[in-house]
Design brief:
By secondary structure, this protein is of the alpha+beta class. The chain is 25% helix and 38% strand. It has two domains: 119 residues, no CATH class; 72 residues, no CATH class. The chain is built from five helices and twelve strands. The longest helix is centred in the first third of the chain and has 45 residues. About 2% of the residues have low confidence.
Length: 260
């Protein structure tokens, strides 16, 4: 019995060659993905440090203050090629406004990785929940109130006036850095009434102080480099907002003043 040698083919048949190309492409794609992924992590770390340190130093925050930096989704490395990040949201808790404390939310657009360059657009919002809004006390009403609700773009306070359950809805507004509250509606014993009707009736002596607020300067609590733009109830928060363009992070620490 004689054995015949069978030589292996020198190359793959043409119909199988495309499999090799797919393997090569898969390996290259994997390497590219890994490089982009690792590069994106580096860019995120650098951008986070730049923004966090800039905000911490500008606001002179105590060491250990929780400064949350959100750089958004997507691949950041492609934005970094241009030298700036499209949008960054920074949250800082326990920022004081008069007798209350809220969360400062900074929305930054066009944030340069070079800390010496200005940010294109900045919006600084201080968010107060119902409990902290209530701590504004006499700034909302000159009479003691027993309840406060933030809803439907209104601040609604409740009080007992001479045995009558009265609620007053207030609309916040801001002008030249000063926040004021205007009566928008009333209920007496659950029955809607106009401000004029109540002030012309027997409840006037007690209702008058309830409907009288004390305007206060909110510019004192927001960066001087920004213009106070709104005071509004957004969802279940009372939000004070200031905006500006071409602002450096280092300038956010100096607060403004009304009439300045």
């Amino acid at each position: 019995m004689q054995w015949k040698s069978i030589d292996a083919p020198k190359t793959l048949p043409k119909r199988f060659r495309w499999i090799g190309w797919l393997v090569v492409l898969a390996v290259v794609a994997g390497l590219v993905f890994f490089a982009i992924s690792e590069g994106d992590k580096v860019v995120r770390d650098v951008a986070t440090d730049v923004v966090r340190s800039g905000v911490t130093n500008a606001l002179e925050l105590p060491e250990g203050t929780d400064v949350d930096v959100d750089l958004g989704g997507g691949v950041l490395i492609f934005q970094a090629v241009t030298g700036s990040i499209d949008e960054v949201v920074v949250r800082v808790p326990n920022v004081t406004v008069a007798e209350a404390a809220g969360t400062l939310v900074l929305t930054l657009n066009g944030v340069a990785l070079d800390p010496n360059r200005a940010v294109e657009n900045v919006a600084a919002a201080i968010e107060l929940d119902a409990a902290n809004t209530g701590l504004l006390g006499a700034r909302l009403s000159q009479a003691p109130f027993t309840s406060l609700v933030l809803a439907d773009q209104l601040i609604t306070i409740g009080a007992d006036l001479g045995g009558n359950a009265v609620t007053a809805s207030l609309t916040p507004a801001v002008a030249e850095g000063v926040v004021s509250f205007a009566p928008a509606g009333l209920t007496v014993g659950g029955v809607p009434a106009t401000v004029e009707e109540v002030l012309a009736g027997p409840l006037a002596p007690a209702a008058g102080p309830l409907l009288t607020s004390q305007p206060f300067c909110v510019a004192d609590y927001l960066p001087q480099s920004l213009d106070v733009s709104s005071a509004a109830v957004v969802g279940d928060k009372f939000v004070l907002t200031a905006t500006g363009t071409g602002v450096r992070l280092s300038s956010l620490g100096a607060n403004g003043a009304c009439g300045a």
